[in-house]
Amino acid sequence: MSTRTAARPFGRTLCAMITPFTEAGALDLDGARKLAAWLVTEGCDGLVLSGTTGESPTTSDTEKAELIAAVREAVGDRASLVAGVGTADTRHTVELARAAGAAGADGVLVVTPYYSRPPQDAVEAHFREVADASGLPVMLYDIPGRTGTRIEPETMIRLAAHPGIVAVKDCSYDFLGTQKVLAHTDLAYYAGCDEHVLALYAVGAAGCISTVANTVPGRIAAILDAFDAGDTARATELQLRATPLIEAMMGAGLPGTVTAKTLLTRLGLPAGPVRAPLLPAGQEPAEELLARYETLMAA
């Protein structure tokens, strides 16, 4: 059984950063630098680039590398950078992982191969091959609602023995399975669902990877600050205060990328449009997002 430690290989409060685009739809590197610097100044000690929220399915390999280099230039050593490199193709994933390291990433986020729905032995072999080849510490990304395939707890426990596999972004919605892995490994777990930030932290997670932190990084960091200070009542209060915005951004039927970019644009921060097949939010959800943001910030 593990003796849970405070090991945080990529920091504690990570933002699943959007990828800013120009109005013409091109990669906005200047906007990415500005947004990354703001997020770190406001409380994030890590950034995840080219994840789901970063529109990785619609950015090219070249754009992914350019984004890492630009954000590294902006934040220096003030924050860790984790690059999303997962694809449905093991060879391509290895190529992206190596390119991420060359561009300045500190680690790689590797999602379960999607669409082909590989069985668990193939899932395990995929992660081991990427970890062996990448040269960077690996964070597994368990999000079966999008990939169609779990990383089963038993598979996680076996993968934890690999020296290059150090962390998990948990979007499994299997709290019992997560606790089982926490109890039997030293993997650093990061809550990938904003409604689980405090709950997962309370049972030994290293922190969170938050989409909502694109817009309220300080409010997300404050939840974990309060818990670390021993003020669990305050941490609970802050999590619950954030819940209406979390619901509007993550549970109202629009992808988090869309809601985050919508609200960032309203706040005058770099974002730009989403790329197809995503569509922008309409006027009504945009107004609701802004209203919930303003209510949270006034609390």
Automatic annotation (TrEMBL):
Residues annotated as coiled-coil are none
Q: Which Pfam families match?
A: DHDPS
Using the UniProt record, give the first listed, main subcellular location: cytoplasm
**Reaction(s) catalyzed by this protein?**
L-aspartate 4-semialdehyde + pyruvate = (2S,4S)-4-hydroxy-2,3,4,5-tetrahydrodipicolinate + H2O + H(+)
> Which pathway features in its UniProt record?
Amino-acid biosynthesis; L-lysine biosynthesis via DAP pathway; (S)-tetrahydrodipicolinate from L-aspartate: step 3/4
Which PANTHER family does the entry link to?
4-HYDROXY-2-OXOGLUTARATE ALDOLASE, MITOCHONDRIAL, DIHYDRODIPICOLINATE SYNTHASE
Q: What is this protein called?
A: 4-hydroxy-tetrahydrodipicolinate synthase
Q: Lineage in the entry? A: Bacteria, Bacillati, Actinomycetota, Actinomycetes, Kitasatosporales
